[in-house]
Amino acid sequence: MSCRTAACCARHPRACEPPPRRSSEVRAPPNGVFTLTSLGSTVPSSAASDPVARRVLRKLAIGGQLAVSHTNGANLPFARNWYAHLQRARVRNFALIATDEEAFAALSRELPSRVVRCPHTIAAHRGRAQPLRYRSSGWTRLMFAVPKMVRWVLRMDVDVLWMDTDVVTLSDPFPVLSTLLEGKSREELSLLASVDGRVPDENVGECRVSYSKELRWGGSAGGWKLCGGLFFIRHSTASRDFLRMWEQRLQEPHAGAKNQPHYNEALRSSKLPFRLLPCELFPNGYRYASAAWRSKFARINGSQPVLVHNNWIKGHEAKLSRFRMWGMWVDPALNATQTGSETQQGLRR
Burial level of 215, CB count in 10 A (0-12/13-18/19+)? Predict the structure, then answer.
């Protein structure tokens, strides 16, 4: 929403700023690094880093880099699947942010020294017996707290691989990230973004920032499709300013229930330089669920992805079922991967 009258501005003062300018179709520059114009905020965060959390997270980081996700008590099965796959891939630099006491107590037993309690000023969520429904008020509050959580960790001088708990690790991502960052200072390249959204059937290998303007994409045509649930961000003042801009968008009147559009708009209107994670190594759920995409990927590369994001599917049970079908669900009691009608080997080709 954007107010254009004095009466509207009086009722909704935060809506008086002009809406972010929509850019035309975006193509990758020759060097793969995008540098964006700033509309920006340079207000530094006033939140002081928790000394206990700082000590834990900095100790876990390797080379100043750390994989991080967050969970509440109801989401613990997915959090366990998340960290079990990291352990299987022999990734040692990871941590979880617990957003309620149930999650903190459970993970403190299961993963000593790998869990920190989210400050109540960031996420004051209480545990629930049932998982939060997609786009419910509780789910929205947690998703809207993501930029604050990431900024909180960045202030501890740690670079963050931010992952939702529906991301599965098949191999250590940090060597790939290091290759992509090689030779670039944090001022020259601050963020590695994963591509979300759909791909055209005739070009399933497409990997780009935005949808084309073709009518088949409907309301998404021309819009950016980067993922707010999987990205790598380096600590710097500019990175924290981008995250604050993302936060501010989420606080605007009529921000809606979706976090990701605000992530894309904040990134588009900031000056933060970024490049794309290779889609064949970091596929979203839409790509990985496509037999055509897997077939093309196998012919091109012949190796499995690094991280798979099991999104583009709604509902706790549906997501769990697809994890099992893909052979990507770990039963904590058995410490074994559950497979379904399609074999793990076949899906990871």
Answer: exposed
